Amino acid sequence: MKQFFxxxxxxxxxxxxxxxxxxxxxxxxxxxxxxxxxIPVPMDAILALYVWNDKRHFWxxxxxxxxxxxxxxxxxxxxxRAGGELFLLKRVxxxxxxxxxxxxxxxxxxxxxxxxxMPPPAPWKVFVFASGVFEMKVGNFxxxxxxxxxxxxxxxxxxxxKLGPGAADLVTRHALATVLAVGVLAVVGFxxxxxxxxxxxxxxxx
Length: 206
Known about the structure:
There is one protein chain. By secondary structure, the protein is mainly α. It has helices at residues 2-21, 25-37, 43-53, 58-72, 74-81, 85-91, 94-117, 124-133, 138-163, 167-173, 175-205.
C-alpha cells in the first residue's frame, strides 16, 4: 500500500503537477487545492516563481492560491467531521487533545487562521482535521483558512519582490523564526482586538 501511494505521489510530481502549472493563475489555485487536500508540494516555492515572473499580478496569485487551499482543506476537515476523534487521539495525547478542544471553544477562527499563516513544518493539517472533529462551521473554516493563507502568501510575495524567488527558501530555512514572528503578531493583534471589544462593551453599558 505504501509503495502504491509513493508511486501516485511520484506520478503527481513528474506529470500532473507540470500540466496543472501550465494553466497559469488557475493552475496555481488547482495545485494549492490538491496540496491542502492530499499530496503536499512545495507551494511557497511554486508561488514565489510565479510572483517573480509576473510581478504586477502578485496579489492575484495569492488570492487564487488562498481560495484553492481553503477549498482543498475541506477534505481533511470533512474526514474529521465524519468521526475523526479516535484518529486524532492516535496522533496527539489526551492532554494536547483537550488543549486543542479548549482553544477551539474559546476562539475557533484564530485556532485555524494562525496555523494557516505558518510555513512548513507547522502541522497545519492537524488543526484542519481538528476543526472538523470539533464541528467548526464550514463558512468560518473557509474564511479562517483563506485569511491565514492570504496573509502568509502576501508576506511571501513582498519578500519575493524585494529579494527574488529565493525568498521562499529563506522562509523555509528560517521556519522557526517565521513561526515565532507570525505567532507574536497574531497574539498582539488578538490582544488589540480583545481590548477594543471590551472597551466598546463598556461604552455600550455606560
